[in-house]
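User: hey, got a sec? need NlpC/P60 family protein folded
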Amino acid sequence: MIKTKQLSSFWLTLIFALVLTSCGTRKYTVKSDTKAAKAADAMSNLRSKQLYRFITDWTGVKYRLGGLDKNGIDCSGFAFLLEKEIYGVTLPRISRDQAKFARKKDIDNLKEGDLLFFSFGGNDVDHVGIYLNSGFFVHASTTRGVIVDDLNLPAYQRVLVKTGSVN
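Assistant: Yep! Here you go:
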């Protein structure tokens, strides 16, 4: 009887140990070539930790034309707040005026905090984003809110009209 209880205990312990160790050996990997992984890499490579905190604090805030707070923000409002808080630069409030304010800079020489200007609706600048690194930028998207995005996507390359610096 004692031998049967010991044997049962042994098998129960062994099964329990196998279950626990099998959970611990499962490997979870993230494909490093996904857009999300590349955006995360760009964020982790930011020089300014204050910029990192600012972006993570605003990520996901919905787009709202004319908005300037966490209830909703537009692209030029986001650029306005970011440049003021992180770099101490007061930009004009509208993206078209921000483009006039920024000194033109070659796309190959962009640095963290430089501005990207787009024209989705014709000839005038109607969208702005802030360059991070490795071809990624942050902006307030009309459909996805504040997000880190890939500048190399054809949708952005076709409408990029100016890159500039205010720092």
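Quick note: Strands lie at 68-69, 72-73, 103-104, 115-118, 127-133, 136-141, 145-150, 160-165. Let me know if you need anything else on NlpC/P60 family protein.
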